[in-house]
Design goal:
single chain; Rossmann fold; 43% helix
Length: 441
């Protein structure tokens, strides 16, 4: 089944397809922006590729992506075993369509996470029936075994790895206790598959030099097979607005998941210290609401901050922008990031930033004291000191905010990322054709 094909062009671009336009299949096992950075990547990259004159079709599983006009969409439905409000559900017998569905359910029943593997198998099956329909196939982080079929079917193939999930696994295991460690090891079992697949794919795109180094370290991909293309934001939508009043003492952070790697529990600890000096301060956490009984909500309760910490979940992009504009300070407390879209979005809005030095964040946020106040990851005291300093210094906030906006607009835009990605598509297509000709000879 296909729907929502590339029937219209963006009004801004109104592009005619150029002679060298490409037919691109973008794969994403979870495409919705509320699923995290993968959904944001798919929506923005597909839009900008289409604006450059390419024919783009997104193939995705649930939760389905939000896409712009001019981008085609083909759903590859899963059993949707983790949907709200009934995650880890038992499907009705009539829902099982084939052996891939059986594999998906069986893996969930043994505490594993099946979606990357089963999505890739569905994608390979679908593309095998459409040979000749696409010039290139671009996977977004699934790294499932089905991808290995695509080069054999004649598809020039590459994949984006935002960062190796092995890093999340290590940080979560370090924070877990008791039986939780056993279930986490099983849940992250798919990383062994991703290790095998990444080493066998012809080319990997990643978003920072920090991620590139870790892809080599954790996944064994040779550096010469990795291309770094920083991603960005829509700097026209994510922009300062004098019309939105600043709320005194408001600190905003964005966390795409309730995971120790995002550092929200550390930020809550720091925020308690901030309120000792600024009792009007409030913390707004945009993203997934933390789990009941988890480290974040336990810290909120223990420190008596329930009235001063707000969780804004499942909000629209317009609401996210408006809420961010109302803040005096933005914070990226992550222990590790492969890139950090929240940092770029806050910088584009012109917010002064407090960030950690975890992973690629310094590549994005810039130098300490020039565009951000940078602190070591996991250090609540240092985080509190930086936040307190910014809240008390309007001139510093203005200087850092202006420098952050300039850095975001000059370095991190989706149009630049899309153009560089299209160049890699052409290079991969040419390399594939050369290899095919050599085999024929």
């Amino acid at each position: 089944m296909e729907h929502g094909g590339p029937s219209g062009a963006r009004s801004e671009a109104n592009t005619r397809f150029a002679a060298d336009s490409l037919r691109i299949a973008l794969l994403s096992y979870r495409g919705n922006p509320f699923s995290g950075g993968q959904g944001v990547y798919i929506r923005n990259l597909s839009r900008e590729l289409a604006a450059l004159g390419h024919r783009v079709e997104v193939l995705a599983g649930q939760p389905y992506p939000e896409l712009d006009e001019g981008v085609g969409f083909t759903p590859l439905p899963s059993l949707d075993l983790y949907r709200e409000p009934d995650p880890f559900r038992t499907p009705r017998p009539a829902e099982f369509r084939d052996l891939i569905d059986v594999l998906e359910y069986a893996t969930m029943c043994t505490a594993g996470f099946p979606e990357p593997r089963t999505f890739s198998l569905r994608a390979a099956r679908h593309l095998a029936a459409r040979r000749g329909a696409f010039d290139v196939v671009h996977d977004n982080q699934s790294l499932g075994t089905g991808l290995l079929r695509l080069p054999r079917l004649g598809f020039p193939t590459l994949a984006t790895i935002h960062h190796p999930v092995h890093v999340d696994r290590e940080l979560e295991l370090a924070a877990a206790r008791g039986t939780r460690r056993i279930t986490l090891r099983r849940w992250y079992g798919f990383t062994r598959m991703q290790h095998r697949v990444a080493r066998r794919l012809p080319e990997i795109i990643t978003v920072s030099s920090s991620s590139a180094a870790q892809i080599t370290e954790y996944l064994g991909v040779r550096p010469e097979r990795i291309t770094t293309i920083p991603i960005g934001t829509d700097v026209e939508r994510f922009s300062p607005s004098p019309a939105v009043a600043k709320v005194p003492g408001r600190i905003v952070t964005t966390a795409s998941s309730d995971s120790p790697v995002k550092g929200v529990a550390v930020l809550v600890e720091a925020f308690a210290k901030v309120r000792a000096e600024y009792d009007h301060a409030e913390l707004v956490v945009i993203g997934s609401r933390p789990k009941e009984g988890g480290a974040v909500l336990r810290a909120v309760e223990r420190l008596g901050l329930a009235q001063h910490v707000r969780f804004a979940s499942s909000i629209s992009e317009d609401e996210l922008i408006s809420l961010s504009r109302s803040a005096q300070v933005a914070c990226v407390p992550s222990l590790y990031e492969g890139f950090s879209l929240p940092a770029v979005e806050a910088m584009a809005i012109g917010l002064p930033l407090v960030s950690t030095t975890g992973g690629a964040i310094p590549e994005v946020a810039g130098a300490d004291g020039e565009t951000t106040l940078a602190v070591p990851p996991g250090d609540a005291a240092a985080l509190a000191a930086a936040l307190t300093r910014l809240l008390g210094d309007p001139a510093l906030r203005a200087r850092l905010g202006a420098a952050a906006r300039e850095r975001a607009t000059s370095r991190f835009t989706w149009r630049t990322a899309a153009a560089a990605t299209a160049d890699r598509y052409r290079a991969r297509i040419e390399a594939t054709h050369r290899a095919t000709a050599l085999r024929g000879a």
